[in-house]
Each structure stands twice: as C-alpha cells, then as structure tokens.
Here is the input.
Amino acid sequence: MIVELGHFALTLAFAVALVQMVVPMIGAHRRDAGLMAIARPAALMQFVLIAMAFGALLFAYLTSDFSVKVVAENSHTTKPLIYKISGVWGNHEGSMVLWVFILSLYGALVALFGRNLPDGLRARVLAVQASIGVAFLGFILFTSNPFVRLDPAPFEGQGLNPLLQDPALAFHPPFLYAGYVGLSMAFSFAIAALIEGRVDASWARWVRPWTLGAWTALTVGIAMGSWWAYYTLGWGGFWFWDPVENASLMPWLVATALLHSAIVAEKRGALKSWTILLAIFAFSLSLVGTFLVRSGVLNSVHAFATDPSRGVVILCILVFFIGGALILYGWRAPVLKAEGLFAPLSREGALMLNNLLLAAAAAAVFIGTLYPLFLDAIGGPKITVGPPFFNMTFAPLMVPLLCLVPLGPLLKWKRSDLVAATERLMGAGVAVIVVMLIVLAVKTHGPWLAALGMGLAAWLVAGAFFELAWRLGLFSVPLAESFRRARRLPRASWGMAMAHGGLGIVVAGIVGMTAWRQELVTALKIGESAELAGYTLTLEQVGMRQGPNYEALVGVIDVKRGGRDLGLMLPEKRRFPVEKQEKTEAAIRTNGFSDLYIVIGDDNGQGAWTLRAYENSLAPWIWAGAIIMAAGGVVSLTDRRYRVGAPARARSRLAAQPAE
Amino acid sequence: MTRKQRRAGFIAVGLGILGVAVGLVLFAMRDNIVFFYSPTEVAEKGIGPGTRFRLGGLVEKGSVEHTGPATIKFVVTDLRKQVTVSYTGLVPDLFREGQGVVAEGAMSPDGVFTADSVLAKHDEKYMPPEVAAALKKSGRWEEGQTKSDAGKPVAQ
Here is the structure.
C-alpha cells in the first residue's frame, strides 16, 4: 500500500513539475504576478511529493518488502541496517529517485529563501528547475520505475553488491548528487538570465553560494569515492583515472572555474557571458556524469542499468538540455554587455587564466574519457586510455595553475603590479626553499622531481598563510590590531585560504604517494616474516571470522619496527554467500604521515598465503586536504554577504573591505 | 593599450592555452593508447614482444598454476586460440577459472604474455563487455550464457 502511495506521489510530482515548468514562465513573460506566484507553492509541493515517494521506497527497503522488484534485486534480510538504507540508491532506479529528490530540495530552498530575488528571475529559475524535474521524473516513471511489484514475491532478496556494502560508499552517492544537482541551480540561473538578457552583480551574488555549496558537496563526494577505492580495491591507489571517476572530476573542474569566474562577474561585471557558459557546461557535465555512470555504457560496479532503451531516452535528455542551452546561449549571449575593463596583470586576469587552465584540463579529461567510447561507437578498434595519458595531459596543465594560486588573491582588481604581490609572497618563497632542502636531505630514494612537487605543495600552503597574514597585518601591526582585523575579515577570505591551503596538502599527499610508495608482494607461511620500509611483518596465523552477512578469511600479522612491537594488523578477504562474491578488506595503519597497507590474498597452493603490502607516504594527507578544502567551502558559505536578507549590511562591509 | 589590442591579447592567451592542451592530448594519444585484443587477434596480428595491450578472454578451467611464491600462470582463451599469461601479484577478488578476465601487459620473447595488472571488474552477472564481444566474435559462445549482453559492449 505504502509503495503504491509512493508511486502515486511520484506521478503527482510529475504533474506538479509540468505546471511549474509552464505557468511561471508564461507569467514571467507577461509580467503576471499571479501566474508567477504559482512557482513557489509548486516547488514546495513537488518537494513534499518526491520526499513521500523517496520515503515509500526507503520503507520498502527497511521492511525488506521483496514484492518490490528493486528491493528483491538489491536487498536481503541479513543485510545490516545502514546498507538497507544505502541500498535505496545503490541501483539505477533508486539512484534516479535520489537525484530528483535532491533536485526538488534545491527548488524548495529557492522557493523558501529566495524572497529577495526579483519576481521574474525567481519564477524563471523555478520554471527551468521544474523542466529538469519533468525530464527526470518522466525518465523514472516511463523507463525506470522503482515501484514495480513482483508476483509472486520471492522469499528472499538477491543482496547488494558487496563492493557497495561499505560506509564510505554508502554516503558517496548522496554527496556526489548534491554536487551534481547543485550545479543545476547555476544552470537554471544561467538560463533564466539568458531569457531575461540581463546579468548583474546581484545575479552573480545569487549564483555564487549555490555553486559553492555544490562544489563543496562534490569535493566531499569525490574524496569519499577515492578513499573507498583506496581501501577496498586492494591496489592501494587513490585515483585510477577510471571513466567513473573522471565523470565526477569533470564537473568539479568546471565548477571550480565557475566559482572563480562568478567572483569576477559579481565584483567587476566582466566575464559575464563566460560565466553563463561555464554554468551551462558545469551542469551538462553533471548530466553526462550521471548518465555515463548509471546507464551501463561503462563497465564497472557503478553500471547498474543494462536496458538499452533507456539509453535512447538518456540521449534525448542530454541533447535537449545541453543543445537547447547552447543554442539559447548563442542567440542571447551577445546581448550581455561586459563592463569592467581590466589589464592583463590584475585579479581579473589571474582569475581568467585560472579559468582557461581549468577548462583546458577538463577538456583533456573529457577527450580521454569519451574518445574510447566514441571510437567503439563508430566501429573502430577497442582501446583503453589509461593513467599515462591523463598524467601527461592533466599534470602539465595543473602545474602552472597551482603555481599561480597564491599569487591571484594578492593582485589588485583592474590593474596590479607584480612586484608588490611577489614581495608579500617572500615568506612563502622561503618556505618553499626550506621544504625542498629538507626533502632532498631526508628522502634519499625516489625521483628528484618529488622535491619540486613538495616545493609546490609548500608554495600553496605557505601562500595561503601569508596571504592571510598580509590581510591581518601580522608581523607589521601590533597583535591586538591583527586580532581585531581577524574578527572583521570576511568569512569568505578565511574559506578561500583554507581551500587553497587544503589544495596544497592534497598536492603533498599525491606527490608523496606517487614518488615514495614502497611495495612488497610476497607469500608467507605461518610464522614467516618479510621486510618493507623498515617494518617487519610476521604472519602469525590465518583464521576465519563470521560477519553479519559474510564470512572472512583473516590474516593475523604482527608488525614490528626497529624492534618495537606496533601490534597486530588484520587484513580480511570477505566472502558474501548470498551474492557469491568476495571482497578484499585491506588493513591500514596510519601515523598521520604514512600508511602501512596490507592485503591478504589466496593460499598459493604451497601452504603459504600471498600478501601485498605498501608503505604509502603522505597518503592520509590526500583526504585530509580534501576535507580542509570542503571545510573552506562551508566556512565561505557562512559569509554574511551570501546570507539572504542582509544586503544592506553586506554593502557597508564591502565598502570597509574593498580588497576581499 | 587600446581595448581592441587588449582583447586580442586575451584571445591570443586563450588560444595559446588551447593549443598547448591540444598538443598535449595529441602527443599523449600517440603513445598511451592501449588496444584490446582477444587471443585470436593476438595470433592473427602477430603482435611482437614489447607492445603493450590488453588481453581479454576466459580463464581456461584447470589452467591456473602457482609458479613462484606470488606468481601465477594461467591460460586465457576465447575458445578458439589460447595465450598463456604470467602474473606476479595478487589477483583480484573476482578472478576465477572459467570466468572472464582482462590482463594488461606485453608479450615476452618466449610467447608468454607478462601481465602487470589483471582486472576482473565484473560481478557474477556480468562479463567484461570487451570479453563478451571477443567471445562472440570467435563464434564459440552463445548469447545468453551470461546476462551481460543486454548492454552494448564497449571498451572501457
């Protein structure tokens, strides 16, 4: 009964979305306040209805109602509660419901908090949002209905892919979708602005927090996915340039560019049509990402849908939104007049360079990801574009960008001189040299390029620090004055420093992991030992352990370093009898600077067990840095200037703090 | 600088970065593309030692043997031709005799394919799409033997 109610609610939501798509748009065109006013209650209603549908699906999973097809195919009574919940979006149908649920949540937020938006803009934004909702709800209802019943109902479910039964992966999709869908807000604002033919500072100020929120969620989602890949796939790598990963990286790169160009659009009125274009691309890549992963074009654990008829619908949705938006852009963008002139050497110039490099990097990833699919589609040979391609294209574009990161915030708007900015970065330069010398002295193995990489990381972290120090007048004014300035410094400045510094920590982690990781592949009999990077690993015992819905082969490994006993590490190989699959669970021991990573394999037939162990230098920094970046996004979001209803105060603050 | 010159300058920088990106992509494409071959194609094309490629097929039943402490040897077949593969390291969780596998590496002079990575990224329901396509091409494999053929086989 509840399941049928959910289905009914979803159908109603489709109808409401249709109304919300058409009526406010006509209202905005005719300047009819009554018609425009429909947008807000419709957006709220749509949210409530989709929440009911989502709730019904959740209920079916929690009660293990196997008469529902998706539940029977993806759940099992013995599955722990958390995976019953995450099972809702662990398949194609459910993940689409989660997608529209988040979409309607964003729409409801605009309806609730968008009071100070101009009526016409709000009506158009909500109408564009609703059109996305219509496409996705239609897609769900007509091709991927999660509420289909089975008759007769099976006695037991088929279980969830064990690779997905993992805490990090359970919450990876909601974050990723919050990011993807958050970019739909920037898209809706961009389309609404194109229809109105007007982009002003308040428009850009409205787009920024949504983009920032989406970017933050996307950062967390990508970090979670990478962390999961690190400890479950058993290879100890953090990024594989797998198409599925690239699908989330591309919108992130473009969202990062959008975040920066929107600043220029808001503060200086320049780069307007470019900002609009980026907003369109960011969401287009989110759509491509969603469908690339979910449609079964890619062969991986993410590809749940194997129904080719869906592919056609997906293609239609992509063509309509991306093509339609670009046509509208080509038609209307010339109307947008750029205002602020600026010299090449200025804050605007630096942000533009940032945008160009990020866009080029996103394009390189795009080509590498989709070229094999394209070649196959036209009947060409089957090829793989692997990590070497991406390392050779992505890294050379990223390195100059990273070098420029600390410089940008120190340049003035309009026209700046390099000397003043570089003087403020003297401290950071010293930090770079010190770090490089330390690395060269301490790390005797590994490539010399690693010292440069660590120098770059230090440049980012120290650059962020000295930028803040300059704003606060540390080292030049009394401490009390600095403290006073710190309290008045906008949160966005703190957020930016955190994001840029966090990026430096990520770079350090990546460099450490790439340059200095040590690997050991061996086979040990019980009682035998092996050495890795100063650690002595002794296989004490191999036993079995019973988990809630699996049984695990556990290796008991004693770890010693320099005679000191560091305790036991317990890598597992789990067997899930319901799903008939195995899953590696690496044992990871971290000290904050490096991870010791052990995976146990099979009995090699000669009474020994294969073991793979790594010492991953600086590995934890990759995710720590990503979390700091995301935290910077959150801090920035709390800036009053973004807060609705405080425009007057924001203006006075802007006057007091011209250099953000 | 006039407005026009300035704009021309920006466009030049933009085109410059675009050019560098295109150059990088083309250069990387030339050397870093890995082709996928089935055992039959390996025999037909006469691929010599040193060329990196991906080899896909089924792990022949009863062919897996441990030749070193952490080294295994197995035979990959498309039910028509066979290639012997040697691999040092841990095989993935889903590696099993009689199931699909994709190995990346190069042929050794002795005719053994030396793999540096072995992928078995499918679950019980799927077969790697490349492998499914290769097996269909070899004509010794019936559709519907696994549930994989619903999706269009593509290189990943």
User: Anything to note?
Assistant: Helices of chain B lie at 3-32, 39-45, 129-138. Chain B touches chain A through 53 residues (CB under 8 Å). The longest strand of chain B covers residues 100-107. Chain B has two domains: 1-33, 35-139.
